[in-house]
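Justification of resources, computational component.

The compute hours requested in this renewal are based largely on the per-chain cost of generating structure records like the one below. Each record pairs the submitted sequence with a full structure-token output. That output is archived, and it is also reused by downstream analysis tasks.
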Amino acid sequence: MNIMKKLFLSILLILPFLSIAQNYCGTLQTEEQLTWLRDFQANYTGSDFRGGDTYYVPLKVHIVGTDEGTGYMNAQTVMQDICDLNDKFAATGFHFYLFEGINYINNDDYYNHDWDDGYLMMVNNNVANVSNMYFVNDPVGNCGYFSYGGDATAINNDCGGIGNSTIAHELGHFFSLPHTFYGWEWGEPAASDQEEVDGDNCNSAADGFCDTPPDYAPFRWNCSSPPDYTDPDGVEFTPDGTYYMSYSNDACTDKFSEEQMDAMRGNLNGPRNNLSDHPAVTFTDVDSTALIAPEDGAVHQYPNYTVLKWKAVENAEGYVLQIAYTPTFSAVKYDIFTTDTFFLATDLAAEFNYKWRVKVLGEANTCEPAGNYRTFETGAEYLSAIDENNLVFDQFIVYPNPTNNTEMLHVDISSAVTKDVLLQITDMTGKVMYAENYKIATSKQTLNIPVQKFAEGIYLMHVSDATNIQVQKIIITK
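The structure output for this chain reads:
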């Protein structure tokens, strides 16, 4: 490929992201989006989209960490974010639900990314026919952005905390909405393009919505001290900072306008109708879970081998486990989403008192509170024979071990009685690298495990039935 062709392709990749960095939102509405929106605004009647329907919107959450698996956004916070998001979108009829759990990604280039790497992050990891959202450390210096080219949103971890409006703002962009100050992102527009206070040009200027008043403030501002402006007719005004699509601070914002909501409904029923290509979901209440092990106040747990178990809950779609340093859970060691009812902690501190709890997630429901916590204390001793078993199979042989990551890993296994088991491989931080359900019979069977994508290192294979876990250490080489 010649140099000019490479340059041309690079420009094509970058174009969907170009924006003026505001340290809040890096989104730029594309001409295609604006063409759809202007056509919608010119032809719709509000009654077409105000039927009181509930639209269940699948939200795929990707939590990005470093190459070493550190720096993840707090999963408990993400669950609360989704709960709060549904409050913000309640008037639209949208109800966002967690689609097939959380995807954890370890990649330094995505964790702190530029426009090119942000685009690659999305095209390499997006799930089709859902709204994809990535939590990262630094999305090109912004609090967040929606990428038309990548068809996903990226959220800065620091801007995605409880009470934020960043997520609602970026999803507004995802569903076609411009900023309330549209046109001012690039400096002062021509007077003819400045929205007037009397509304004479509200259909043709700024965001094109007549129920959002003029806003000329393309920067973060506090609602206690809003900026003052004068429109082309000489009328003085201050922007209304209560709209999510403005740049006022999080505490100021509390709504979308009726016309903005109509546009988002129209977008969901039009260009975004692929979001409905999923089995119907419903809001499901779920009970809290009972913690099983370790018992409350347990001592002498192995720092490199502590198994936590809890009771399965009817209608649960998954669980968020937290292992914390403090009773308030303000400082956590582990904060993970899982569909299992157990977790193996492998890198706790010795001689430390931990607190742990589990939050149950229902279908389309991330709002249930976490249950009561328990405590346990690690001892000074580490488990050296980490492949000793408390679940005995008639045969359990893993080979080759060590194995090259270009080969398959094989497991010869049989049981005295037929049983359903879950086989998982985790890295030493507890991140699940492989998971598959098997039915183990009394005759020997060989399981073939693909490890081609595994980095060089030490991993743990654990096989569990309803009550027990068997663990085998495996080594992957290049």
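Residues 325 and 354 are 5 Å apart (CA to CA). The helical segments are 3-14, 31-43, 75-88, 108-111, 115-125, 166-174, 258-269.
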